[in-house]
Specification:
Length: 316
């Protein structure tokens, strides 16, 4: 006996309900069903009477119903959950039926809400969000990338450099930079034209990119024929090694430069760095300090005849 109502009365009540709902006994047999539930199973009410859930539903859904009985027997609640049945998605709400107020679960009511349209909207929204995220990343990358060389542009540099300084300060690691200048580039441009000049800058950018291979190292076009390399967690000695590789890579391009004393395109490089960023140092101050020192070192490299590497003498 499910309640003080007769079985016929219970069945009548379920038949009139405007939702897809059924009443299952402990053997997962249908005690009562609504017309909408029968429609979900694509069958008639007469065919459902006294039949087992296993006659109409896949094993996993039958196993779910039996699991729900065990959960209620243990005093647990069964959370609403989604299932897929015959290509449609449903939200399932399960509630226990007790025998005359006694803590003995004799049946469960299972209500189904068709959420197929909602799921489709969720999938469409997810795809749309993914497309938007991809587009955003592409726009962001485009905004931070120098079109000619593929390195960071000035905007990208001003976004990345402070973050790397902040990371170095937080992790108490060294950071170094190298300021790279193409030697006598104006005269190269004047003699060979802007198209050749752009091709030369692109080649230098490629040489720099091929040299800084560690994840976290950055190359940027600082302006005109100047480039900046950011080297997180790198000592001055490590920065010098990178600079020598850059100088060699540019030399190996073998780009003829008739107005250079070296007969080909070369670079001068100034290096600066700091072993430990003070915790109370402002990011902007460290940013300006490293650039100022690298610029001084670059000036010294040019004064020494170019095609050379100099390190700032005032390294902390």
């Amino acid at each position: 006996m499910l309640s003080k109502l007769s079985l016929e009365e219970i069945q009548r009540i379920f038949l009139s309900l405007p939702v897809a709902i059924c009443l299952l006994d402990r053997e997962t047999r249908y005690v009562a069903v609504s017309q909408k539930y029968a429609s979900v199973l694509d069958t008639s009410l007469d065919k459902l009477k006294g039949m087992s859930m296993a006659d109409f539903c896949p094993p996993d859904l039958v196993a779910n119903a039996r699991r729900d009985f065990r959960a209620f027997d243990s005093g647990e609640q069964v959370a609403d959950h989604d299932v897929t049945f015959r290509g449609n998605a449903y939200l399932v709400s399960v509630n226990p039926v007790y025998h005359d107020g006694v803590d003995s679960v004799i049946a469960i009511s299972v209500a189904l809400t068709d959420i197929s349209r909602l799921k489709k909207l969720e999938v469409a929204l997810s795809k749309s969000n993914n497309h938007l995220l991809t587009a955003y990343k592409q726009i962001k990358a485009f905004a931070e990338t120098d079109a000619l060389t593929g390195l960071l542009n000035r905007h990208g540099l001003e976004t990345i450099f402070p973050k790397e300084i902040a990371r170095a300060r937080r992790e108490q690691q060294p950071i170094a930079i190298a300021l790279v200048d193409v030697d006598w580039f104006k005269s190269y441009n004047d003699s060979n034209g802007h198209i050749a000049g752009d091709a030369a800058l692109k080649a230098v950018g490629t040489a720099i990119r091929s040299t800084i291979r560690r994840p976290g190292d950055w190359g940027a076009r600082y302006g005109g024929e100047e480039f900046l390399i950011i080297l997180p967690n790198t000592s001055i000695g490590g920065a010098q090694h990178v600079a020598m590789n850059v100088s060699r890579a540019v030399h190996d391009l073998e780009i003829v430069h008739n107005r250079s004393v070296f007969g080909q395109l070369t670079v001068s490089i100034g290096i600066s760095g700091i072993e430990t960023v003070p915790r109370d140092a402002a990011t902007e101050e460290v940013y300006e300090l490293l650039l100022h020192r690298a610029d001084k070192a670059l000036y010294a490299a040019k004064a020494a005849g170019r095609n050379t590497i100099k390190v700032s003498n005032s390294i902390e």
